[in-house]
UniProtKB/TrEMBL annotation:
<dbReference type="InterPro" id="IPR032675">
    <property type="entry name" value="LRR_dom_sf"/>
</dbReference>
<dbReference type="GO" id="GO:0005737">
    <property type="term" value="C:cytoplasm"/>
</dbReference>
<keyword id="KW-0732">Signal</keyword>
<keyword id="KW-0433">Leucine-rich repeat</keyword>
<dbReference type="InterPro" id="IPR050216">
    <property type="entry name" value="LRR_domain-containing"/>
</dbReference>
<dbReference type="InterPro" id="IPR001611">
    <property type="entry name" value="Leu-rich_rpt"/>
</dbReference>
<keyword id="KW-0677">Repeat</keyword>
<protein>
    <submittedName>
        <fullName>Leucine-rich repeat (LRR) protein</fullName>
    </submittedName>
</protein>
<dbReference type="Pfam" id="PF13855">
    <property type="entry name" value="LRR_8"/>
</dbReference>
<dbReference type="InterPro" id="IPR003591">
    <property type="entry name" value="Leu-rich_rpt_typical-subtyp"/>
</dbReference>
<feature type="signal peptide">
    <location>
        <begin position="1"/>
        <end position="19"/>
    </location>
</feature>
Amino acid sequence: MRAFVWFLASFVAVGLAQAQQHGTLRGGEAARTTTRPDTVTTLVLRDEGLTRIPDVVYRFPNLQELNVAGNTIRTIPRRLQRLDSLHTLNLSKNQLAGKRLRIRRNRTLRTLYLQDNDLTHLRGRYPRLRGLEALFLNRNALTALPQNVGRMRALQELHLNDNQLADLRQLPLRALGSHLRSLNVVRNGIRELPAELTLLSHLQALSLANNELSEVCPVVGQLDSLRSLILYHNHLTEFPPCVLELDRLRELDVYYNQIAQVPPDIDRLQHLEVLYLSHNRLPYLPESITHLPRLQKLYLHHNQLVDLPSGLERLHHLEVLHLQHNLFDFFPPGILRLHALRDLDVSHNDITEFPSALLHLSALDCLYLFHNPIDRTQPWFPPFEETLRQLHRRHVRIGFESEK
């Protein structure tokens, strides 16, 4: 009996230790029974069936992060401001919709998650959370934001994807212009960009993916602080020429459009590190694309390419090259001079022969060659098969059909 009691006590102790690790406490039971509330900095009460924020949260004087997502909480209590170390509050997937949403003034909160709450509006007197840096309002039903949101002078990130903000003029653009750094308005049914968007003069990241845009110029070209521009899955039929004005741009995504030509002066984007051109209608690339000295990742799959431009060896930092689902009928030899290449995918083409010199790509980690019409009876194949064996011994991940 003593052994059983000892075992049960040990089991409970282990369970509590697992619930509280590295300052993180998970679950209501652990929150109520811990003997060291002063050591807890993160409290997770997710999916606990809560209808309100429980009083137990006030046991933790040094609480920095509170996660009460996935409950049915309807109000945010005034007492929450007593947690004067709290910097992150996750209230996603609750029932904060409508006029019930009211957040008191708070100077310590830095990140606030309010996504998935069926919010249709925020109160006109939306309080100024003066220290708030990131606000997540994703997956609600918002058609506008009140001007007071723009008065949060510390706000740098605003996440609004999956709402009903088809008219971006319903955002407090002028008020946000002095401080906002990142704006996410993915899937909002946006058809055009208003000139007022240029008021966001400090914007560094703009995500406009999955909207209805057929044109983004000249507005985008005037956001000259942009580092990241995401235009994924819109209705662009040409590469937006004004993008070339963004000389600080590091990431550009035009996946899933109908672009048939990359401009010959693409090399104006001298700071570009990641370029997504996949799922377009490109039959060729200009030679100038090899004059992007910082390019690290180039995604070109699902186009109509038959060759690559000369001069690939100039891309000294290129690590990822995806060419699957194109029309190559030979292996582009310039690839063998990309000595930083880690990830190469040329699957789903019409390539009939692969070079054994792939072995000399010393940085290679992943090589995908699936679904190409190779003839294993040809003299080139036995040496190449040995190349694959040696790459395998180097722990390179290889995608290649075994002989049936």
